[in-house]
Amino acid sequence: MSVVLIGRWDAETLEIEESHAVRDGDLEAIGALLSGRSGIWWSCEYLVDRHRDAVQRAYENLAPGQVLVDEVEGFDPVP
């Protein structure tokens, strides 16, 4: 299984608003999650089993000065 995180950027802050478990590489499922959205969204699939592991990976990929806020479970990534 994988976790797909979906969120939006607000200046230098990535706000994670949704988290979904999908089969690894299931592009049809990911497409269905993203279809019909208006505006600019960020999303990424992480090959992990838990939401918090996906959030940690997303955090580790941020540039210096950027911030991540997990609105789904309130997980605080470890620097």
Features:
79 residues; alpha+beta; 2 helices; 4 strands; 23% helix
Question: How would you portray this structure in words?
Answer:
The protein is of the alpha+beta class. 23% of the residues lie in helices and 35% in strands. The protein has two helices and four strands; from the N terminus they run E-E-H-E-H-E. It has helices at 27-34, 51-60; strands spanning 2-10, 13-22, 42-46, 67-70. The protein has a four-stranded mixed beta sheet. The longest helix has 10 residues, at 51-60. The radius of gyration is 12 Å and the shape is globular. The termini are far apart. The mean pLDDT is 95.
SSE topology:
Blueprint: E1 2-10, E2 13-22, H1 27-34, E3 42-46, H2 51-60, E4 67-70
Parallel strand pairs: 2-4
Antiparallel strand pairs: 1-2, 1-3
